Amino acid sequence: MLSYEQARNKVIEEVGKRKGPCATAVVSVWDALGFVLAQEVKTDREYPPFDRSTRDGYAVRSKEAASGAQLRCAGEIKAGDTVMQSLAAGTCLQIMTGAAVPPGADAVVMIEQTSRKGDLVRFERAAQPGQNIVPRGSEAAAGQTILTPGMRLGYAELALAAQVGAVQLECACRPRVAILSTGDEIVLIDETPGPFQIRNSNSVSLAAQARIAGGEPVVLGNAADRIEDLGEKIERGLKEDALVLSGGVSMGKYDLVESALKAMGAEFFFDAVAIRPGKPAVFGMCQGKPVFGLPGNPVSTMVTFELFVAPAIDLLSGAAARPLPLVGARLAEALNEKSGLTHFLPARVEWLGGLAEVKALKWQGSGDIAALTKANCFLVVPADREKIEAGESVSVLLRKDVV
Ligand code: AMP
Ligand code: MG
Asked: What pLDDT score does 239 carry?
């Protein structure tokens, strides 16, 4: 059986091998958060476009502003002022943050290091050449490529695009992720379930996870545990960029997802992973599309989506697969888990004075969504560990949606 790392790498390898060029669309910079860029963005001019003061203070010739020296202030420069005239020898100019440093000046002394009487400014410390000035062109040259295809647009990337006037961006279309739940016991979330029926919560969590991962969820409803119904709905799902099923992949007599996919021509790369929850997870390619059969217990569905489906969505978006958000933490209370499988336990990590400390939460197993709402991470218990003592260092998989 594959470890979760091996299974994840398999997904990355197979989806990476087969994906074609992504469809693209032009998106306004206001709406492009989370999209993957499909074009280069170049600067429209040098950055900064002029020698920029980073402080409120005085523009000086550094040689003239020794410790204890005094210079006459000959005027002021505000941010946005047109600056043409040189700094006259023996003078200084009051300057504001973001203003252009005048020709002749080679340093800005921050106001806190000066004292002033009338026009006379006294310098408490010797000015150093270049201090508090960002030279013209030092952040980027004119026409330089500053954003490249495959980059994900976060707030900094969007601000950079805006800075250079790139207000419309060609981006990869979000991959359309078909979501199909399965099970005779499942009813719509706005229906009142019979005493032995269950509302379709998995389609809701999967749609949310698909969205966070950068995909566009296409919710197809629920298939009954019958080959014909599964086949029909799988066929519909294969029209999208990827298909994610929940339920029907365990060993039960009515777990028919694998057979239904096989009947549609699927080739499987794994049908079990050494993890709990989530062991029966299935991944294959069917008619050129990645297909995932995730176990139906809600927490299993969530964990296996994060481990295996999210990297596929990255690749289908034209980006590299982002690494799992794993961080180290100190274990607060000793743990005793059966070995042989890597466990992902709902847990809460707190940062105490900057040091992460994690505690596993009580739960009733992989059907317990309520326990997960108290968790902000999964504590990862390696397959080869049975007992972990308090104080030991462990890994946690952060819940990206709440941390
Ligand atoms: P399965 O993987 O089909 O054996 O289902 C495992 C458990 O998950 C069963 O208790 C199901 O009732 C439950 N389950 C399956 N699908 C869903 C769903 N769409 N929403 C909520 N629970 C589900
Ligand atoms: Mg089922």
From this structure: 98
Closest-lying ligand to the alpha carbon of 187? 1
C-alpha of 9 from chain center: 19
CB atoms within 10 A of CB 77: 21
pLDDT at 339: 80
247 pocket-lining for ligand 1 (C-beta < 6 Å): yes
Contact between 4 and 342 under an 8 Å Cβ cutoff? The reply is yes
DSSP H or E segment with residue 389: none
Burial class for 129, CB neighbours closer than 10 Å (0-12, 13-18, 19+) = exposed
Residue 130 in tokens: 């270049």
Total-model pTM:
0.94
Among 18-27, 226-235, 340-349, name the one with the lowest average pLDDT.
18-27
Among candidate residues 93, 117, 100, 11, the one with its CA nearest the CA of residue 53: 100
299-334: per-residue pLDDT in tens? 999 999 999 999 999 999 999 999 999 999 999 999
Q: How far apart are CA 19 and CA 289, in angstroms?
A: 9
R_g (Cα) of the chain, nearest Å: 29
Q: Which atom of ligand 1 is nearest to the CA of 222?
A: 19
* Structure confidence by residue, pLDDT tens digits, 331-359: 999 999 888 999 999 999 999 998 999 99
| Rounded distance from Cα 195 to ligand 1 centre (Å) | 15
b/e map 239-271, b = 16+ CB within 10 Å: ebbbbbbbbbbeeeeebbbbebbeebebeebbb
Atom of ligand 1 nearest to the CA of 252: 4
pLDDT, residue 338, reads: 85
